[in-house]
Design a protein that fits this description.
The chain is α/β, with parallel strands linked by helices. It is about 35% helix and about 25% strand.
Length: about 270
Amino acid sequence: MAGDFETLLASDFTARSDRPLDRALQVAREKNGKLVIAHVLEKGEGDPDPATVERLRADLPQEARDAELVVRTGSAPKVLAQLAAERGSDLIVAGVARYNSVGDYLLGTAVDHIVRNADAPVLVVRGRASGPYAHMVVATDLSDCSRAALLTAAGLFPDAAITLVHAFHVPYEGWLKSEAVKQEVRAEAWEGLDGFLGHADMASLSGRIKALAEEGEAGSVILGQLKSNGAGLLVLGTHGRSGFSHATIGSQAEALLAAADVDVLMVREHKA
């Protein structure tokens, strides 16, 4: 019998949707849960009649044809966020919006809107799912928001090793050449990271996390850790107020989401 965990896959049924589908299927199997595939018709494409639903189902691979298929009409970002809220979905899975002429990833407003408006975490899939995530990199600015993102990711993917990365910089480094100043800033960064890890909610993750406080620009530090660890997942928290510019790593979040060549889990902060 399927469990209570529900994975909601946003699919446009194009060739690029196969990777998000593979990952969504894998998560549903791991959680012994339910997979729901959502497809949104643009206005002018007609109403989602039974024939349309069955035509779309026929396009699915055999292993996905037992999934619940929900077809609606409207603005895709709004409909998907509303649908996830109605159903109480535990995870939303989406792919990159489109590709440009040189193969770079471009993220449109759809993912941004879903992240800002859906309560469920959003997994943006780029890579092909060859197995469960073995390693994830979690970016932190030592905030409650990033702690919630870490705990959410750890619960979703309980077998993945975790590298927790806190990037810091030495202010006015061009003028302050003193090694003593650098050591002081570095010590403060580690003190903050130790306090972050010492929170009561983190006790369950003891022994599972490799924590790093590294000097440098946040985006470069995080991308470097993704590469050096061979991690397949990057985890970012967002305050959900005005899109990626308010994510835990500030203005770097949107650039990271575009630059990282791995899957990205976005977790929105929930205010009490």
